[in-house]
Design brief:
Layout lengths: L1 E2 L5 E6 L7 E6 L2 E3 L5 E6 L2 E6 L8 E9 L2 E11 L4 E4 L4 E4 L4 E8 L5 E6 L2 E2 L6 E6 L2 E6 L8 E9 L2 E12 L9
Parallel strand pairs: 1-8, 10-17
Antiparallel strand pairs: 2-6, 3-4, 3-7, 5-6, 7-8, 9-11, 11-15, 12-13, 12-16, 14-15, 16-17
Length: 184
């Protein structure tokens, strides 16, 4: 189970059998007791462990061990934090002649789903016949074909998920002839 940092997490086990039950919660084989951080509750056959304001110190394997006079059972759950997006490879500055093609590429890790958007000078980049965007196997790609002077500027790759948002940026410099009006 993946959870957001600072969220309240509830782990539940349903038990069938003859009471009375003895209930033990452990995290990474260390006992968990009711406290400001944890609350254990038992309502009929439902046994719950509430973990308040979940953080990195709470990551681990939780087990609920339940015993009665004739036996015992165990349920377990691995609980981890959702990771915000992080760039393993950022987009890089690039230059192109007019009419050329450029490709910005970034490698991203983090908890899925991740949504990627592209901006140019803080305006959203919109796909068209010459602009294609993909996000496959955690690689975000922006391809711009038939480069024109209007494509010159600062580009941002923005990655977002439930746990956070990250951006990286690079410059596209367009080189080429510019003609005075009417002389082409």
């Amino acid at each position: 189970m993946e959870v957001l940092k600072d969220s309240d997490v509830v782990l539940e086990c349903e038990v069938l059998g003859t009471p009375p039950f003895e209930v033990f919660w452990v995290k990474d084989d260390k006992p968990v007791r009711s406290s400001k951080k944890h609350r254990i509750s038992i309502e009929k056959s439902l046994i719950s462990l509430h973990v308040f304001r979940f953080d990195a110190s709470d990551v681990g394997e939780y087990q609920c061990r339940v015993t009665n006079d004739v036996g015992s059972c165990l349920c377990r759950s691995e609980v981890t934090l959702k990771e915000p997006p992080q760039f393993l490879k950022k987009i890089e500055n690039i230059s192109s002649l007019r009419g050329g093609t450029v490709v910005f590429q970034a490698a991203i890790k983090g908890s899925l789903p991740i949504t990627v958007s592209w901006l140019k000078d803080n305006d959203e980049v919109i796909e068209d016949n010459n602009i294609k965007m993909t996000f496959v196997n955690n690689v975000a790609t922006l391809m711009v074909r038939s480069i024109e002077l209007k494509h010159d500027g600062k580009y941002f790759c923005q990655a977002k998920n439930e746990a956070g948002i990250q951006r990286c940026s690079a410059l596209l410099t367009v080189k080429g002839w510019s003609y005075p009006d009417g002389l082409q």
